[in-house]
Each structure stands twice: as structure tokens, then as C-alpha cells.
Specification:
This protein is an alpha/beta fold. It contains 11 helices and 12 strands. It has a single domain, classed as P-loop containing nucleotide triphosphate hydrolases (Rossmann fold). Strands 6-7-8-3-9-10-12-11 form an 8-stranded mixed sheet, sandwiched between helices. Strand 11 and strand 12 form a beta hairpin. Helix 3 packs across helix 4. 40% of the residues are buried.
């Protein structure tokens, strides 16, 4: 699919989300967790941007901040060129689908009632048309309208995820943030959900921010991939380039893991006590010489992102060395 060349639908500019660490009776600040640290990204209409990284890298926090479930410490989020905090329509324009849709569904409500509640709350259709619209939404996600009378516990995990997608579609959004929505599903069901998302995107020109720890899953649906480590984007580019020719050592490790190769990288960086310089250098074999000493630049200075080709960005001091090891 060709992505629109129009201006970005969503623009994230130098976004930071820091959490204070407080101790003692007086709750004195003794440190902070830098969950998201100066991230800049954009998403165009009809595009899927995959955001990938290990657990704890900050990707979920970033997604929650976009939908205003989490406050930003710094930076800005624009939707249609306006600050997202000032757009009254944002609650409809941007929707978030969680990993576990069961937790967001009222077990005492039928699926039809749960979807109908969203339609009524946002006044999408007149009251007399709610049932009909609910039936169409279920068909849209390849469920039967008759299933509207069933309760959440009567559905499988994949079906419940379809219900979560139907609820998100109910308000006619333009951007959907998918946070690990297939990670708990079997491989065959994952493929079905990814195919459904692709079909809906094609029909409705939806944009997705697809968050996952699995690079192999992300490459199936994303047009571009952003790789996140310790609150920062370390590599960004078209899916084929990032997945087939990873430049950052961290991206290479993620790709090797996706292929089932055994990769030992040591402990994930602690966001409350980040290493100096490049946050990945304690885990990076390329940053160490034959004697095991870390290159001084890697240990002291965080690398500035470098554009290696058209739209491909990498934050690494060792780009020439990396290229020879891919």
C-alpha cells in the first residue's frame, strides 16, 4: 500500500515522560525513572508504524501518553498539527487497544451492550440505530451479529481481541494504538488478527501505532519500524531495511532473537540508573575491544541519530563497524 504524502497525522516531538522516585516520610525525591526520553516520531494517514523493544523500554508509556492516560514531562504531541491536549475530538480520533481486552470489558454486560455503550456515550448514532450499528461493527471484525447477546467469558482470546477492535472502531477513529494486542495469542490467531487490521486499514485509511516486543510480528504489518531502547529510539526506517539489514547492534540482537537464534546480552538497562554514554554499551559486544575495554566514546557520549540513507536513522557511534558485522 502507498502511504499518503500528506503532512503527518500524529507528530511526537522530543517527548519525555519521567517518574520521580521518592523516599522517606517527607517523600523526598531521590531519583527518577526516564521511561521516555526525548522521543520524536510521526505517523501518516494510512500508515502503520511499528514500535518494538524489550519489556520496560518505554513503548507502552509512550502509547499511553499519546492518548493522555499519562502526562508528559516534556515535549509535545500534535494531532492534525494541533496540540493533542487541546483537541476535544481526540477521544474519538485516537483509540487504544490493550493486550488483554477481557480486563476492559464489563463481565456483566453482553458484547452488544458493551459496544452499544460506546455508541451512546459518544452519540455516534441515534438510540434507535444502536443495535443495527453494533451488528455491523461485529461483522466488520468478522464476528456474527448473533454473538452480541453473549458475555465476554464465552469468547476465545482471539474473539475477545476482535471485540476490542470493534469497540475501538465504534467511534470512527483515525489512529489506533495497538499495545501488544497479539502477544498472548497463538501464532495462527495472531496472523488472523494482523490480516484483519490490514484489511480495516485498507478500507478505512486507518493509521496504527503497533507496539510489540516481537520484531518478527511487527515486520508483518508495519510500513516503518522504530526500535526503542531505554526510553530512546535507536533505529528508525522502512520495515524492509530495518528487518532485513539492521544497523544498530540492539536491532541486530532483536532480529536474531526473532529468528530463534540464542542471544545473550546481559541485563536490560535500568531506567532509574541508566549507564552513561550510549545506554546499550554495557550489553554491546561491538563497543568492546579484544581486551574487553569499552570504547570511550560509547561510554561517555550518547550518540546523535545519523541518517544513513533516505529516511533511515540510527543512533550509534559505530556505524562503519556495524555495517561490517551485519
Amino acid at each position: 500500500m502507498t502511504i499518503s504524502s500528506d503532512s503527518p497525522l500524529l507528530q511526537i516531538d522530543s517527548l519525555s515522560v519521567h517518574f520521580s522516585i521518592e523516599r522517606g516520610l517527607l517523600r523526598r525525591k531521590v531519583g527518577e525513572v526516564r521511561a521516555v526520553d526525548g522521543v520524536s516520531l510521526d505517523i501518516h494517514p494510512g500508515e502503520t508504524l511499528g514500535l518494538v523493544g524489550e519489556s520496560g523500554c518505554g513503548k507502552t508509556t509512550l502509547g499511553r501518553t499519546v492518548v493522555k492516560l499519562q502526562s508528559a514531562t516534556g515535549g509535545e504531541v500534535l494531532f492534525d498539527r494541533e496540540p493533542i491536549s487541546e483537541k476535544i475530538q481526540t477521544a474519538r480520533d485516537v483509540q487504544l487497544i490493550f493486550q488483554d481486552p477481557f480486563s476492559s470489558l464489563n463481565p456483566r454486560m453482553t458484547v452488544g451492550e458493551a459496544i452499544g455503550e460506546v455508541l451512546r456515550q459518544h452519540q455516534i448514532v441515534p438510540p434507535e440505530k444502536v443495535a443495527g450499528r453494533t451488528a455491523k461493527l461485529l461483522q466488520m471484525v468478522e464476528l456474527s451479529p448473533e454473538q452480541a447477546h453473549r458475555y465476554p467469558h464465552e469468547f476465545s482470546g482471539g474473539q475477545r481481541q476482535r471485540i476490542g477492535i470493534a469497540r475501538a472502531l465504534a467511534v470512527e477513529p483515525r489512529l489506533i494504538i495497538c499495545d501488544e494486542i497479539v502477544s498472548a495469542l497463538d501464532v495462527s490467531v495472531q496472523a488472523q488478527i494482523l490480516n484483519l487490521l490490514t484489511k480495516l486499514q485498507r478500507e478505512k485509511q486507518l493509521a496504527y501505532l503497533f507496539i510489540s516486543h516481537d520484531l518478527a510480528v511487527v515486520r508483518q504489518i508495519a510500513h516503518r519500524i522504530a526500535v526503542m531502547y531505554a526510553g530512546k529510539i535507536v533505529e528508525l526506517g522502512e520495515t524492509e531495511k530495518v528487518a532485513d539489514d539492521p544497523l544498530h547492534p540492539y536491532t541486530q540482537a532483536l532480529m536474531a532473537s526473532a529468528r530463534g537464534e540464542g542471544v545473550t546480552l546481559g541485563e536490560v538497562a535500568n531506567p532509574a540508573d541508566l549507564p552513561s554514554g550510549c545506554h546499550f554499551h554495557p550489553r554491546c559486544s561491538l563497543a568492546k575491544d579484544a581486551a574487553g575495554e569499552t570504547a570511550s566514546e560509547c561510554a561517555t557520549n550518547y550518540p546523535k541519530p545519523i541518517e544513513t540513507d533516505n529516511g533511515r536513522w540510527v543512533a550509534c557511534h559505530l556505524i562503519p563497524e556495524v555495517r561490517t558485522h551485519v
